[in-house]
Amino acid sequence: MPCAQRSWLANLSVVAHLLNFGALCYGTQAQPGPVHFPDRRQAHFVKALPEYHVVAPVRVDASGHFLSHGLRHPITSDRRKRDLDGPEDRVYYRISHEEKDLFFNLSVNQGFLSKSYIVERRYGNLSRVKMVASSAPPCHLRGTVLQQGIRIGVAALSACQGLTGFFHLPHGDFFIEPVKKHPLTEGEYHPHIIYRRQSQRAPEQKEPTCGLKGIVTISFCIEEFVLVLLLFYY
Question: In its keyword annotation, does this UniProt entry include Cytoplasm (predicted)?
């Protein structure tokens, strides 16, 4: 083999290694394929959506470099509110959506829930009630959405179990939620769905009121509830 050709091949090999190394450092995001929805209610709801996208959120650092597929922000519940202002108490996510990388710059929303709130669960009637004082660490987040370093929107998300919540972009409002009951494996991403908030419901749908049994109606009420919370707490 001629010397010039060997030199060219060697340089090509070096470039390939550098590209691979760069991809590993940045944490190239896996593109999710077809997803099965184990949760029956969610599967039914997804079928009723005009459009949705499956995404694979990852936790990154302030520079956008990959940290983990685990999305929970490691903050303990005994941190005082005045201590939650440093850069170490911010959390960043990267989501590839509609062929664009969205960068979420979020901080803990300490004022969202009282530290001594109680969760009450009802199982069909008043005789089957379970009340539990919450001791979970804060996991409700709010902040901005950036693309190529430019702020393009705002977000209010819960990272308690995957990412659930709302974000606003110039071209619309979007909701995100994890694929429920998806088997989680360490080192692998947790698929989520993103769908656009519909400004108008289909004509055949009745005006919803919370308390009805329809899955789509319940989801609509939840969406409106999230928007109200965003307005009051952001």
Answer: no
